[in-house]
Amino acid sequence: MDPLKQLFFEKAQTSKKEIKDILQQHGHVKVDEVSIDQVYGGMRDIICMLWEPSLLDPQEGIRFRGFSIPELREKLPSASKGKEPLPEGLFWLLLVGEIPSRDEVKWLTENWVRRSNVPEHVFRAIEALPVETHPMTQLSVGVMAMQNTSVFAQRYNSGMNKTEYWDATYEDAMNLIARLPRIAAYIYRRIYHQGNTVLPDISLDWAGNYAHMLGFADPGFKEYMRLFLTIHADHEGGNASAHTMHLVGSTLSDPYLSLSAAFNALAGPLHGLANQEVIRWILKMVETLGTSRPSREQIADYVKSTLASGRVIPGYGHAVLRQPDPRFMAQRQFAEDNASDSDLVKIVWKIFDVVPPILGSLGKVRNPWPNVDAHSGALLMHYGMKEHNYYTVLFAVSRALGVLAAQCWARALGLPLERPKSVTTQWVKEFLEKKVQEGDAAPARQA
Ligand code: HAX
Question: 432 CA distance to ligand 1 centroid (A)?
Fold first, then answer.
């Protein structure tokens, strides 16, 4: 058994026993109550699922296995001439809860290189799509086309014992992560470089090689990719892509089927597609105002006109966060160190000054602060990646790390089919009538 798999197995065995004890002794303890607002309001904040790799605090932001993003930028191993964390290290941490050593990260990089061969038919499946098909659709199709290689599906068909689900899932997860940059880079080169692909450089780390296969030689871009692919990896389990992965996987759909579904959720403009939407919105602003150095007043007027036309300000707001997203702040810091002369970056910083008070003044936006997607586009443009339709693919390659680590855990812990209860408005009315009859009048909202 490989060292990471062995460690994961040991950790999962210990955790399984702990959870069994918790359930035996405290299974009946209530952790939450559900209001009618939440039934109609997208199930916000309801505590109802398990997701081991990360936890999101509304004020503090994401912690991966207890570590904040600034801590991980300090502690995770980096590339030999770089400063930013290697995503390999983050995956190790998400899977087993320990910061890996340099040697462990090196082992993982090499292991992924060995697993990275993509079957030829996957490229043919992508080629069958019109070249203008959105890159996220092409990625999702690429992942689906690989499903015939799923170790989980093959072993399940051969009567795999359920105590071995975790092992097959681990194999699929590792293969998928290893292959994704090749597929994602292929799509980029196919769409924007006439199919002129760049061969992998297996001396590079996972993110560095992805940047290389995209066609970027700049060491600065490689460093940004390492940071980008680390910070986008996971955001606890309730966000749409993670939750989709969990839901689809809970039917014992294999990791390929689940990951493709998760990518489809990520491709929505209220979720991962927001990184594309942000830069498009900023470029439109520059075009409309006729200057690449707009003043705060000009930006404020443009923000107000966007709101007046019934659209959201992309990159702002969040379903859970109530402070500036630490993933935004990490990119801002990176930009201060590496791209402070970029006009687009300067616009992003001005928007950060201008938008929160305007959204706050609407009185309905629960979080007026920037999220992860508010900054990435300006940095990508700085390094010459101008094809915004592709930006969400970068997010997806990163998100695979978190959701696949979580699926390994779901299988190891034997988490069951997910099946929450839904109701109708008729049910809600009858429920409220019954409350009134019982003298337990429906609680009126406080003014
Ligand atoms: N601009 C304008 N209005 C906004 C807004 C924004 N950025 N954010 C929230 N609002 C509005 C909502 O549309 C809602 O209006 P209505 O009542 O008229 O429908 C109201 O404020 C209350 O919304 P909320 O409770 O504050 O926010 P939600 O939890 O419902 O939604 C969203 C969270 C992220 C979807 C929302 O803030 C949004 O649409 N933001 C812009 C899109 C975006 O940046 N998405 C990426 C989010 C991070 C992510 O997943 N990245 O992948």
Answer: 29
